[in-house]
């Protein structure tokens, strides 16, 4: 998904298309961020963790709750990530790249698209709840990102030809800086 945005191929949003990203980094999985995300998911609370930062940097977070009256099938990370990324359809494009202004309707997308966030780790928990006399099967997804995105007044990413803003020691991989 990040490569679609980085290369200027994301046509949703208003006005679309979203501008290509000159400096978007490839995302890598991080075990420490995953452990912190799993510890939070295990709390079974559908709200953002306020104590999630690690020694290396502040940490951003996306959460998603799935609830049904039938037993849950296996976790579908692709579907959840797509739901977060689909917020791009509500994103206003170039005028919100800098200075960044937070919007609750696009915050999951902007964290996913934050150029300098290059590490992520996720956790999931499943539990049952009783509400309105019914049993609900619930799954809580949590993903942490580092360094944190959604920093008010900062750059979401720099618009420009994909990889044109990568550092001299970097190389380009599918439009992302490595």
Automatic annotation (TrEMBL):
Family annotation (Gene3D superfamilies): CAP
Top-level division of the source organism's lineage: Eukaryota
Record-level GO cellular component terms: extracellular region
Occurrences of domain SCP (ranges): 1-153
InterPro entries (UniProt xref): Allrgn_V5/Tpx1_CS, CAP_dom, CAP_sf, CRISP-related, V5_allergen-like
PANTHER family: CYSTEINE-RICH SECRETORY PROTEIN-RELATED
Protein name as it appears in the record: Venom allergen 5-like
Lineage, opening ranks: Eukaryota, Metazoa, Ecdysozoa, Arthropoda, Hexapoda
